[in-house]
Design a protein that fits this description.
By secondary structure, the protein is of the alpha/beta class. It contains nine helices and eleven strands.
Length: about 250
Amino acid sequence: MWELLPTERARAFVLRHDGRDQSYVDLDDPTYLAFDYVRRMGDVVDVLADPGVPVRVVHVGGAGMTLPRYIAATRPTSAQVVLEPDTEVTELVRTRLPLPRRSGIKVRPVDGRAGVAALPEGRADLVVLDAYADGRVPADLVTLEQAAAVARALGPVGHYLLNLSDRAPFAHTRRVVAGVREHLPHLALGAEPATLRGRREGNLMLWAGRVALPVAALRRRASESPAPYRVLDGRLVSDSFGGGAPFHQPG
């Protein structure tokens, strides 16, 4: 069941599904990113493209579309596609949390696997995976085969950004890292220190590309964040999240 809850801000709402907060949307200020993990994803966008520079983005998972709204506000004329199979939440967003006019955001009622497979080769500068079911990314979206499909859809210097949820010893994330690295070998990972130290479950932001990532720039933003977080470069990702075997599509 989807619920829309008011917040302390006049026209801001939390979108909740089955007791889990999914999105925070401020209709008056789409640049306001309330959730820490969304701010981390916004930091990656800001490192990759200067404000005002349009980007081609595919979002796997939509809910309240907080990050697409942020990109539309900070980089007008960006071409964005949101793959969201849950038509119930899309209708709720359209009626209660409408997107700005001429936002450039197009919502397609398809699942992430089919939607990514249908993308033209080299279609995107950035693919963002932020899709959850019962507190975990759907299994078919973190396989080796899905990573290959995403890589095909990215341009030569395109990037893949994944929002994962895990806790030490990070068995799930190790397997996702193994699959992504097969096709996008340059990796970085951002998370709050308490999660990396194994004190609690949390969001892990995995960032991947074909070319070297500007990790130093992201670390500067991480240190200046309202909720500072650690950014691991490729070597540290290998040290802390290596050794996994990729997930595969069944059959």
